[in-house]
Amino acid sequence: MDLVIRHGGREETVKVRRSSRAEGGYEVVIGDRTYHVDAEAARAGLHSLRLDGVQHEVAVRPHGEDAWWVSTAHGSGPVEVADPLTHLAAQTRGGKGGRRRQTMKAYMPGRVVTLLVQEGQEVTTGQGILVLEAMKMENEIRAEHDGTVTKIHAQPGQAVDMGDPLFELE
Amino acid sequence: MTEIPRRRIRKVLIANRGEIAVRILRGLREVGIRSAVIYSEPDRLGLPVLLADEAYPIGPAPSRESYLRGEAIVQLAQEIGADAIHPGYGFLSERAGFARLCRDAGIVFIGPSPEAIDAMGSKVESRRLMIAAGVPVVPGGKDPLPDLDAAQAAAEAIGYPVMLKAAAGGGGKGMRMIPSAAELASSYRAARSEAAASFGDDSVYMEKYIVEPRHVEIQVMGDLHGKVVSLGERECSLQRRHQKVVEEAPSPAVTPDLRRRMGEAAVKAASAVGYSNAGTCEFLLAKDGSFYFLEMNTRLQVEHPVTELVTGIDLVQAQIRVAEGEPLGPEFDAYSGPRGHAVEVRLYAEDPFQRFAPSPGKIEILRWPDGPGVRVDSGVYEGSEISIHYDPMVAKLIVWAADREKALNRLERALSELRVEGIRTTTPLFQALLADPDFRSGNLDIGMLDRKLAAGELQPPTDGTAGAGEDLPLIAAALAHYERANRTAAGPAGPAATATSRRSRWGAAGRHGALRGGSWT
Fold first, then answer.
1. What ipTM does this complex have?
2. Is the pTM of this model over 0.90?
3. Model confidence over B185-204: pLDDT tens digits?
4. How far apart are CA B306 and CA B319, in angstroms?
């Protein structure tokens, strides 16, 4: 999973994947640095992160829609996370089962590059709907659930602001 | 001397809230005295209520409709059969009228007499009394200086540097510092014309200007038999806008000889007003070792624990015994100086990086430090709501060790164990102070903290390990995001969760929390 993360004045592309190097293991790549992370939850919101054996206790809790409040031994503050793939999921959180209708919104300012479907088309979970270019990355925006794309608000080449509607999925 | 009646106290009504209510309650329980607390509507589930033997509602959130309802509180004490009222600090603690209400109702007020509160409550009256008693006060006077000759005579008598103040001024306005005789004539003329322009009144008076003084205060305890003793000093120079932030005992600037002299002055001051029970004489301590009485706080102080830790005396329990008419015990006569070193930091629900904006809210996660030499006086627990209605101080963290350096190291260790999530606290300020060379070396004065904050000198220490330390927040947020995405993509029991659940212990507690409506959702 590729993420764009902002913290303080920094903006970094961060890659996360599961890893078998450690129990509870992840591999996190930030720039040219690769961390093998063993992460365990002590309780909801409080985690032990071992980075190559060095232990850090970290508290993490949601801070609005696209950010986390992170507290370490050396301070605390918001960390913004932009993620093309899970943005869909985040928007439908809580809507489990039954018929769902959602307005998919742009998670960051950018430009619509390509439409992958047409209005009225039936799609399945995970199917790409459109490609949004933001922060110099092309991100495929995918369907969070099976349904019909009832309306597409954006056209190729169109610039969108954060929060602008992209399409309706029903 | 008239016989002082002994009166056994069996139940005390605590007319306060928060950490000091808890502190008093603890002192009472250890000596088998029943505790009753009052609470305002938002404090129904406060820690004092949960720990008390009895608890009674006193009104809605605003203090004047609850904790300041003196008559209702005295009436309640009578109704529930309380023998005494402990006022704590703040609220009604220094209101002579309240102490009188108690006395008239036959309830013991755990504190000094209303007459002593009155005498110390007036700046002019207490200064007059202190001068008469031979207690040093800041040299100078409020008498207007009619001409330059009078100003010169006053300055010679006081000694440079001096301060000219507008009689009609206040709040720092209309003040002019004069370093030496050469500047007096021009400053005097300027001060008068400034005062006339600013306040419509050109009278000015003169006081000694004390350069970068320390705030050093003496804890005293008096009994009802006329005996008053000193329990040594507390250094409280670290203040933000006149609000104490860090206190310690002993003061790094106080020698045994100075301690003895300041203690004698404080005892003189207290005796001059017939003081009994716990009280504190505040002094300005100049760099040359001279000290000047500021005022007396006629109550238990917020920072009393540092004195308790270096004297071994439980001040709350001593207050009770004194109020019962007992003479001061042998532990007071045995006091010969501080043992070891104690430091207290006041944990405020304020954001030190947002100009100390209040940070009310729910405490989601709370882990107090523990282990050798650590004491926490707190009025909250995990799940507590920090209300906007009251003082933002949520707890005091106090450490004791054999000497100052060890105590500061211990404080640093304790702060590293402290975990408060959900609200912001002043913890980063203390971490920054612990990295400050002036604080570390005990080089303090009352303006130091404000100066350093204004200059941006106090920065929280960063992890010495480059890379990992700076990347840690990013890593944590990335993992939180990754796990939430996997979870919500298929639901807690869905295929994605199953696929990752084998080792996904980050998510395990998070999912559990989410299902319970915990902090992840």
1. 0.79
2. no
3. 999 999 898 888 888 888 89
4. 16
